[in-house]
Amino acid sequence: MKVHCFITGTDTGVGKTLVSSAMLSSLAASGLRAVGMKPVAAGLDLFDGTWRNEDVEQLKAAGNVDAPLALRCPYLLRAPMSPHLAARDEGVRIALQPLLSAHAQLARQADAVIVEGVGGFRVPLADDFDSADLAVALGLPVILVVGLRLGCLNHALLTAESIRARGLVLAGWVGSAIDPGMRAFDENVQTLRTRLDAPLLGVVPHLAPPEAARAARHLDLRALHSTAALAA
Length: 232
Description:
The chain is 39% helix and 22% strand. By secondary structure, it is an alpha/beta fold. The longest helix has 14 residues, at 16-29. The relative contact order is 0.20.
């Protein structure tokens, strides 16, 4: 069984890393060799004397494949800003081919590669391509993480429209309760279920702390295993 997919979100800070990590935790627990990839990460913090990206570290901890950082995150940038700007500050040009090569190598080592995008679906990575172009080049089905808060209906529907306009498969979506005080929570989730026309893989509640194993309990990935585009 092979499960490979691209995780995007309705915006930055909506829980993509938590959902990606939860998926990795669930897939690894099922016996698959699972690894997370963050093709481009912007923003480093000091951990135990080493500069690291928190998202990249969380993905590593949730998987069970010991792959080198150069494959899991080919472009690791210092400043927490749009990748094309962070790369420009460092004199780096993000290129598509190294990202495709890294993914291909991970796919040979693992049964499941969960590729987490950066920010929303159309974040610029360089002057000539963005994260949507990367998803198309990888040819992976997309899972959309919807940050459940006021405005999420419009953001989710526009993102789903953009995904499909690129010829990509929206394989499913996950609700992420980033605003625990959101009004008409259940009604909003039901509206998304009706309008997104893709399987709901789960709704992750507001967790403190946001742990992958806890979040995994709120996901049902059976729909992925029955999707021909994801499983081969």
